[in-house]
Amino acid sequence: MRGTVGLLLTSQALRGLGYGIAAVQLGAIWRLGGLTPAEVGLMLAAILAGTLISSLALARWADRAGRRRVYGALYGALLCSGVVIAVGAPLWLLAVVAMSGALSVEVMESGPFTTLEQVMLASTGGPQREVVRGFGLYNAVAAVAGTAGALLGALPPDRRRLGGVLVVVGAAGMMLAFRLPASVEAPAVSPGSQRPRMLARSRGPVARLAALFAVDSLAGGFVVQAYLGYWLSLRYGATTQTIGITFAVLGVLQTASLLAAPVVAARVGLLRTMVFTHIPSNLLLAAVPFAPGLAGAVALLMARACLSQMDVPTRQAYVMALVPEQERTAAAAVTNTARYLTRPAGPALAGVLLPLGLALPFVIAGVAKTAYDLTLWRIFRSVRLPSERPS
């Protein structure tokens, strides 16, 4: 188990570093390369579309093709993306590689790589406590590596440098993929029998979770960090230096909460950790716009950061524990895609609501997230995970 987790954490660290640099520099590189704002928008849309398409394709075919093989192929696509970026290829070729799903527009991605890694982490065969600890480390590594990559992205934009980084990450990822053990693969289908259809036994629970996760992600989109920085400058006149230091401290506190989540879950359970750490986090979020000054708002944001990420590793582990082993890939793909679909609408809605009241985006996000938590608890509190059922 430790060897598999180590390989996946190394893979996540390398990819997080590359994605952190790309998230900062990709748009600037395209602008300097002569792309118009409309063309840059189309390229970003192609990356998002590729993430969606590849995630849904994984849900249907990854287990048949082999998880390690598909994982290596994704890294191969990332390598090709790096080559295309480095040589300054034409727009149509950029769009083709963007549609592969291997690129990301965020420092911490939640696309096809994440789907496969969640499933493989859950397939290590260890006790649930160790699996949840693995998810906590996995997300903490993503946060730290992505932050380090974003800091490196502050260097002057250079397509050859960025392309070279992605080529190295892609090549290293392919080597790591082929070192993964056979135990991460889907359970073998007995001769003469058909592989069960996607989400045959867990369609209902996964659909309900996907719908709830979509609501939570939409609400989170109201207060993404870029919007939060803009709001702090608008409401309190915060400088970019203050905002940058604040975000750095928030990142440290969020990483600590990711590492603390498995400890809490071992004592109270996955679902309770998801719900009852998230609700106070939501209330703190809704209180931010009512702080009398910048110091108070920052203090509330820091208090929230101590709790806000504790549901992330527990949520991933809960989905993997809830569904049968042969349906984990499909469940991870569907629930991750649901979150990815709705999140971009949040900032747009927040911008529309802001003229009606500076507090509205925070209050709506806090109320919607709390409604998500309470609904999640009401629907799933009586559902016992397989590991909790008597043998």
Question: Care to describe what's here?
Answer:
The chain is an all-alpha fold. It has helices at 2-32, 37-65, 67-87, 91-98, 112-122, 128-152, 159-177, 203-221, 225-236, 240-268, 270-287, 294-308, 311-322, 328-342, 345-353, 360-380. α6 packs across α13 and α8 packs antiparallel against α16 (360-380). The longest helix has 31 residues, at 2-32. It is globular and about 60 Å long.
CATH architecture of the largest domain, by name, is: Up-down Bundle
User: Which CATH class of the largest domain?
Assistant: Mainly Alpha
Number of helices: 16
Shape: globular
Q: What is the share of helical residues?
A: over 70%
- Helix and strand content put the structural class at mainly alpha
CATH topology grouping of the largest domain: Growth Hormone, Chain: A
Distance between the termini: 23 Å
Integer average pLDDT: 84
Number of structural units classed as domains: 2
Topology, number of strands: 0
Order of helices and strands: HHHHHHHHHHHHHHHH
Supply the CATH superfamily name of the largest domain: MFS general substrate transporter like domains
Poorly predicted tracts of residues:
none
Strand content: under 5%
Quick one: biggest sheet? none
Rg of Cα set: 21 Å
Structure described in brief:
It contains 16 helices and no strands. By secondary structure, the chain is an all-alpha fold.
Essential attributes:
single chain; 391 residues; mainly alpha; Growth Hormone, Chain: A; 16 helices; 75% helix; globular; transmembrane; Sugar_transporter_CS
